[in-house]
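call fold target=2-oxoglutarate ferredoxin oxidoreductase subunit alpha
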Amino acid sequence: MSTSTNGNGVLSASRPTEVAKLDRVVIRFAGDSGDGMQLTGDRFTSEAAAFGNDLATLPNFPAEIRAPQGTIPGVSSFQVHFADYDILTPGDRPDVLVVMNPAALKANLRDVPNGGTIIVNTDEFTKRNLTKVGYDSDPLEGDTLSAFQVHKVAMSTLTQGALEGTGLGKKDAERCKNMFALGLLSWMYHRPTEGTEAFLREKFAKKPDIAEANILAFRAGWNYGETTESFATTYEVAPAKLDKGTYRQITGNTALAYGIVAAGQRAGLPVLLGTYPITPASDILHELSRHKNFGVLTFQAEDEIAGIGAALGASYGGALGVTSTSGPGIALKSETIGLGVMLELPLVVIDVQRGGPSTGLPTKTEQADLLQAMFGRNSESPLPVIAPQSPGDCFAAAIEAVRIALTYRTPVMILSDGANANGSEPWLIPDVNDLPDLSVEFASKPNAADGSGEFWPYVRDPETLAREWAVPGTPGLEHRIGGLEKQDGKGNISYDPDNHDHMVRLRQRKIDGIDVPDLEVDDPSGEARVLALGWGSTFGPIGAACRRVRKQGMPIAQAHLRHLNPFPKNLGEVLARYDRVVVPEMNLGQLAWLLRAKYLVDVQSYTKVAGLPFKAEELQHVFTDIIEGALAR
């Protein structure tokens, strides 16, 4: 059957099918770690973004470079939630599950709701593969999957058939089956196709035969959906009504990198990223390395300690020093972070949190580094801590971190996490002119209070308590700094006990005095007695759960903390306003612990450390129970 392309870049065809209009869909692609599920999901996401849907994604993959083939630990998946309205999460359960082998089915089946659609690559359901994952019999036979709409598709065979005559071997042809699956799903949901074909030609530009093979497989999947009688219905999800402007799909790591680039430009400073590759932060290095034209220098050091040492040295030299890592790297960088606190130099430390302790779960999300960020250095060593709430918000968080670092001359830690780093969403590209002016004034003349004509490195701004920043080599501003305690003002080494007490308190007072916005509370009815308070990537699940609770007719307030040190000045008043405060966290209650200690509020902690984000459904039940308990008092 012949096909053509309509004006939206969607293949059009003649076979009549029923078209169902939906407001939202959650699709999960799952297969072996070598099956290309991340690429498949990313391409479907890109086309949904180009079509104008709001979306959120959740990649999930093993830490091993190549886990044992066909086993449950080797399963890789990519979930995308797209809708015609603003959404907050990648979705709780997949409406459609595409599985490439028995392991993918077994690992993901429990998440599929009754009545959900399962599309199966039957070629991989061999006796050997079934045995690997503990299936005594083929689940595609009998009643095992009777609660679902199951579509059996011999994807490997059909892909190889479509590629006959291309000259590719059987093994190479079979690798294209993920594009067959993408083509089939693109047909089912009326997704644009021209962008994917252009992407494949660009990605495999040096191997045009591979590019064309993938395109043929992609078209074969689309044509299969059109010609087979198995799929009688296609689905449409209209574009979302978003705020006017130019959007692009963005991941949290990319947004952090762009934020650092933009901040460097707004500050008029060169940027140096001193880092060491570590999952899930490595993409920040990869992205920043592409932007040398914006005065960004990336330095891949031999280890974590050297990376932050280079970044702090760049700050000493008058640049914007940045380092990126995950929790294990923060442990190694802690001494140099403390040195940055003592030197009082601007430094941005990015911690993309992952499961731990030790090496832990490198590719899974967690937010259990909060107490490490607050206290994980020797002695009294305070620094500001901020956390982005979504992938797109990582850009704004990076700008804010640089603002604080430059204004107050201090290291600042950004606490992102795996869910934000790897997840994606539409991002409204800001107007550069709307970004804050981050320009700094370096010291230009001697400042000694005694009129000696010397430069004293610890003379401070009376409002911010930030010391002057002098570029080494500036005539007349010769000075020395280091890790030993400093005499206030002059900066000489001092062992005087009264001076040490003074300096410790002064450094703390500087952080406490940082100007941060008040905490905003979303309480539509004004009648809520329960407040759901979160930080980091829990924003989406908490917000989605609050929406559901309100639809049930129950009032609930929501607030989300970006600034974790110092807290917003109105936080104590906000907490006192509600009968119950519940704090969902992907740790064992670290923010709840801090709130109880500082504000003496009986915060209710709800925790999860499964390596996966909260589901809106589970938080909905938690909030409902707490509200009912509050009303019963």
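return ok
The longest strand covers residues 24-32. The CA atoms of residues 40 and 182 lie 6 Å apart.
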